[in-house]
Specification:
- The structure is a homodimer.
- Chain A is an alpha+beta fold.
- Chain A is built from 10 helices and 17 strands.
- In chain A, the strands form 5 sheets. A 6-stranded mixed beta sheet of chain A has the order 4-5-15-8-17-6. In chain A, strands 7-16-9-14 form a 4-stranded antiparallel beta sheet.
- The first copy, chain A, is globular.
- Chains A and B meet through strand 11, helix 8, helix 9 and helix 10 of A and strand 11, helix 8, helix 9 and helix 10 of B.
- Chains A, B: It comes from Hypocrea jecorina (strain QM6a).
């Protein structure tokens, strides 16, 4: 079933080229010979397989598969002194993938990265995002370029603050990457510039906050990890979206943090067959950690600085602002982003070996 | 936290309009009065809530939330005598959602449906699919309209058979709906028409096959449900996609079948820390059930008959064919499809109540 020979594996697609279930159940090796490059096996059905030492090492030697190394760095407010940045020109360079490798690697490490010196147009922003992976269509559309309707300028002047949250908690698979590019900010004309609210942006490292919770209050961490909640999007007449099942606020894979899902406004009813008081108590602690000054990274979006972040890890929010802001951006699926990260940072054969033995 | 009043719930988006964690921890009801339409509560912080009897019934009375009823019908080869069909005109009627309700309801019931009397153009097919939900972009693109390159006609003349499989097993969330519309089939000119291979299409109800396995061999069902496997897409130079973690062939939610993931050619290595022989034995039985004549539904794709099926439940395949086939189609995310199904078949308030207490 795992033969790697050119007859058994389509060399273009690396898919199996044969019917696993046509292999005799009682197949056994007739002849095993160790060579310099690997092992040759002659099977009882007279098929001949060759396994390289490197394939055997990664698949057989240990039951712990090799993982592609991701240096995860948790961060708090101090990240503001040196936030991760990559230059637009480097990312978009057609001759080299070094810039893309750096961008995706920083997003993996910190959960976000700015692409600086970006052209201040929606077209260039869209090209940048599509170079990472296909843009995800939702009921809101795909790539968006949002200009508040000038006719509504009066009511649009005040734009409310949003607490830190993740987007699309109501999807089975929430959006992977999310991007914002502030193309322009026009203050209202009837106020002195010094009094205008600027609309600060907020990022919080959800993995750092979750580790804080786990350290300070392991029982509360366990409650947010184990209690599965309903989430919903009911905001448009034609749409009433919910995930395929209930999901907890904190998802782990083994001991490792895997995904944060948090938008308290879109949360359904806490199920009555769990200890409801204990859940609220845990959520209260979680909410307080998210609002600690040393966990919050506040900054100003600027034209030319595209923000891209991992919506499975990093929460975002903003303070109130006045005037008109034009922002463009999009969602990118996480599978496509992770594929881009792997292939620009590791040898292709290591990536495929790792994918084929993923846990 | 669950107050339904117009001050607490944004009446447009049905999102919470207040900070859950600003509610005093020791809040308690000061006054409870039962009215004809529901219950009024005056809280100790002097906020006044009103809960309708219907809201209380669905959220409090039992811990078993009301589910929107989906009459699931499992099927085998006999479905060929009366496959589910809906007329294109009815689905696309702008005045009524009855046709869309019927289409989505049949896909929920049977896992597939034909849209008959469809205009034989890619444009109309795309409009039909977008009326269900946004089209999902992947590394293959969005809506596709595939015409084999005429310059390659010689090598494209033989098009191999594909055994029953589900698509995109390598995504964290595999494609929800998949659609095929055969726009034309031009046989090769150098053969009498009677000898030309037509390319029969195959559907297999994965839920029916899984129930057969569960009945005939519960231990094998349990192995395919519990052993998590790696899946991968490595077919293009720039792409090496894998899901966020390993997933089993059969996923359940409680006792109910939830999702089938099966493309043996894209499967990675069976993990060595499980009973590998037992897994292969179970997969062999599963594969044999999928190939039983009474589980297979064979038919001919035809221009004007758009096939739409649930890729989480129904496997598809085809026999070999000759000549040139032009096929268009797309993926639609399952969340969007399920939203469309719910809103066209049930009252909006029942849908939202159900979403807010999903398990």
């Amino acid at each position: 079933d795992n033969c790697r020979c050119a007859q058994c594996v389509n060399q273009d697609t690396l898919q199996r080229n044969f019917d696993t279930f046509a292999i005799p159940k009682d197949i056994s090796p007739t002849e095993i010979s160790a060579k310099a490059e690997g092992v040759d096996i002659l099977w009882s059905d007279s098929h001949r397989s060759h396994y390289t030492w490197s394939w055997l090492r990664s698949n057989v030697q240990s039951t712990q598969p090799k993982e592609l190394l991701n240096q995860e760095s948790l961060w708090g407010a101090a990240i503001s002194s040196a936030p991760p940045e990559v230059d637009f020109e480097n990312v978009m360079s057609s001759g080299s993938s070094t810039g893309m490798a750096e961008l995706t690697s920083k997003i993996r490490q910190y959960g976000f990265c700015f692409v600086v010196n970006s052209p201040k147009t929606p077209e260039d922003t869209e090209k940048l995002l599509e170079s990472i992976g296909p843009i995800r269509n939702t009921h809101y559309g795909g790539f968006y370029d949002f200009i508040p309707d000038l006719a509504l300028a009066d009511t649009a002047y005040t734009n409310l603050a949003l607490p830190a949250h993740t987007d699309t908690t109501y999807f089975t698979e929430p959006a992977g990457l999310q991007a914002f590019h502030l193309l322009s900010h026009t203050p209202p004309t009837n106020k002195p510039a010094s009094e205008v609210l600027g609309g600060q942006s907020l990022l919080v490292d959800g993995f750092y906050a979750a580790e804080t919770l786990r350290r300070e209050s392991p029982e509360d961490f366990e409650i947010l990890r184990s209690v599965k909640l309903p989430w919903h999007a009911s905001g448009n007449q034609g749409v009433a979206i919910a995930p395929d099942m209930a999901y907890p606020v904190i998802e782990v894979s083994g001991d490792k943090l895997h995904r944060i899902r948090w938008n308290n406004d879109d949360r359904g009813v806490v199920p009555l067959d769990v200890d409801v008081d204990a859940w609220y108590e845990a959520a209260r602690k979680w909410n307080a950690i998210l609002k600690r000054k040393d966990h919050e990274y506040w900054f100003q979006l600027e034209p030319g600085r595209v923000l891209i972040f991992d919506n499975w890890r990093v929460l975002h929010g903003r303070s109130a602002f006045e005037g008109l802001r034009r922002i463009c951006g999009a969602y990118i699926s996480r599978d496509d982003f992770v594929s881009r990260w792997k292939l620009t940072n590791f040898p292709r054969e290591d990536v495929i070996a790792s994918n084929m033995q993923l846990r």
